[in-house]
Amino acid sequence: MATNYNKLLILFAVVFYCTELTYSWLKYNSYTTRKRTDLKRRCPNVRALRNFDLEAMMGFWHIIQYYASTEELPEYACMHSHFTFSSDDHHITMNFTYIFAEDPMKEQLQGNITWQIPDFSTPAHWMHTEDIYEGIYNTYVLDTDYKAWGLIMHCAEKKKHPRYLSALLLSREPQLGDNVINFLREKLPRYDIDLSFMFSINQSSCDNLIENSGDNNLAYTLNGRTNTEDILKIMLKQ
């Protein structure tokens, strides 16, 4: 009788320990189980940054944190952006590069977004020019000091679909202080952004990336090398 009682105590202790361990893991990784509450229909009302200096915002940025209403897991690393402004057509272009964090080849992918400024009295509000975006697609610079950090947010509305909302936390350097990161993150919940889905983007080991040529998925340029023999030798060493 005592032996069975001891076995029950041991079983209870094991179950209790496993339950506590599982609860702690799920609490830490809340995005894996918790139902999203940020999938709204309409874009929030946003007031873009006042007294915005467009030219000072241009140039190279590291994207050190990223939020998107369509994504529930951290997927990216080495994400960078470069903003330019054309005085000819008054368009803003962001060329961006990134890799998938789990890609062992570290293939660098690239893309671009182009905006126009609908009202130059509020130059921190941009509208996308691409025809592929259905309905309203606005971008707002929420805050920046131009020299070190910035925060921008995109929102698109589509018929019969939840809005698409994303936010980029920018830094001129690969690292940014925790106090600044927290200061910028705290600006997002007012727009119904769930910060548990605002993921950090690793900016380390971003020098030796394989660049996708864009013409052929099997053709790569590694670190600016264009000699096929050199590329093949380097790839075979990995």
TrEMBL record:
Coiled-coil annotated residue ranges, if any: none
A Gene Ontology biological process term: lipid metabolic process
Superkingdom, natural source: Eukaryota
GO cellular component, one term: cytoplasm
Stored CDD domains: lipocalin_FABP
PANTHER family found in the cross-reference section: APOLIPOPROTEIN D, KARL, ISOFORM A
Protein name: VDE lipocalin domain-containing protein
Higher taxonomy: Eukaryota, Metazoa, Ecdysozoa, Arthropoda, Hexapoda
